[in-house]
Amino acid sequence: MGKHNGKAETQANHLLDLDQKQGKKNAKKSKTKPLKKKGSKPSEPPVFHYLSEAEGSSKLTSKFYEKELARLQVELVKMQYWVKHTGTRIVILFEGRDAAGKGGTIKRITEPLNPRGCRVVALGTPSDREKTEWYFQRYVAHLPAAGEIVCFDRSWYNRAGVEHVMGFCTDEQYDEFMHTCPEFERMLVRSGIILLKYWFSVSDEEQERRFQSRLTDPARRWKLSPMDLESRDRWVEYSQAKDAMFTVEADDKKRARLNCISHILSKIDYVDMTPEPLELPPRKVAPVDYVRSPINEQFFVPQRY
Question: Where are the domains of the chain?
Answer without folding.
Answer: 18-297
